[in-house]
Specification:
The chain is built from eight helices and 14 strands. It has helices at residues 11-14, 19-26, 40-46, 119-137, 160-163, 172-183, 189-193, 210-213, and strands at residues 2-7, 30-34, 54-58, 68-72, 78-81, 94-98, 103-108, 142-147, 186-188, 203-204, 216-217, 220-225, 234-237, 249-252.
Length: 253
């Protein structure tokens, strides 16, 4: 089984950049998308013509903002959106699918924002989302993927010293949130295979032409329950694929 996760930075924008051709080449069983920036009907309309996938999406109340979607060739047993907490479920950030042997949770974690205005909100989100994952895990192991909006370690961003405790995505509070996931029983699949690999990132700023100079951040992850680790065949960052300020990340089971 091959699963791909990708923050596409707007589904109506990326569909104009040969998205369907990229999906064909990826040939994934499941594709998880973040930051669709569209309502549910607009997601379905944008993906019309891409065959073989069922589409499940969650959109924000605020139009053109946030949003997640899952394209799957494997019929799920059940699908849900949100994490069951009203204040966190207005932005379309989570789609969860139940399969025979695991839950797949697609997430777009809130960004702490310019001037860190949402850092407190983000901390609360991390706690509640972790609790939601552990609730699901009581029934089946989890695969959790998406844009977590945090670089976990120094090797996960090009300029750690310049950004530590100054920039959204590399605040200690956000790092603590990722620690909670990993210390709480989840495995970072990319680091499982490549514990010390540097200079491989999944997001680059458009404003600073970061991709041309590979000044980037690894903020897109696949986390899995420890019981699934023996089933992992491969984890990768597909940084050759263009179309967004993020590139896709991939997991093979």
């Amino acid at each position: 089984m091959k699963i791909v996760s990708w923050n596409i930075n707007g589904i109506r924008a990326i569909i104009k950049k040969d998205f369907s051709g990229i999906i064909d080449k990826l040939n994934a069983d499941i594709v998880c998308l973040q930051e669709t920036k569209a309502q549910d009907d607009q997601v379905v309309e944008a993906l019309e013509g891409i065959d073989d996938y069922e589409i499940f999406s969650s959109s924000a109340e605020r139009k053109g903002y946030s949003g997640t979607a899952v394209m799957t060739r494997i019929k799920p047993l059940d699908v849900s959106t949100g994490i069951g907490v009203k204040e966190h479920d207005t932005e379309g950030r989570v789609v969860s699918l139940e399969y025979d042997d695991f839950y797949l949770v697609n997430v777009y974690v809130p960004n702490s924002g310019n001037e860190l205005k949402r850092l407190d909100y983000r901390q609360g989100w991390d706690e509640v989302f972790f609790d939601y994952l552990k609730m699901l895990e009581k029934k089946k192991p989890l695969i959790v993927c998406g844009d977590f909006n945090v670089a976990h370690r120094e090797i996960d961003l090009a300029r750690p010293k310049e950004n530590y405790n100054k920039t959204a995505g590399y605040m200690q509070e956000e790092i603590d949130g990722m620690d909670r996931y990993l210390e709480g029983g989840f495995t970072d699949t990319y680091r499982h295979f490549y514990p010390d690999r540097k200079d491989v990132y999944s997001w680059w700023s458009y404003r600073t032409r970061g991709r041309e100079n590979n000044v980037g951040w690894r903020i897109d992850y696949f986390l899995v329950s420890k019981s699934l680790v023996p089933s992992i065949r491969k984890a990768d960052i597909l940084d050759e694929i263009m179309g967004s300020d993020h590139c896709p990340v991939m997991l093979e089971l």
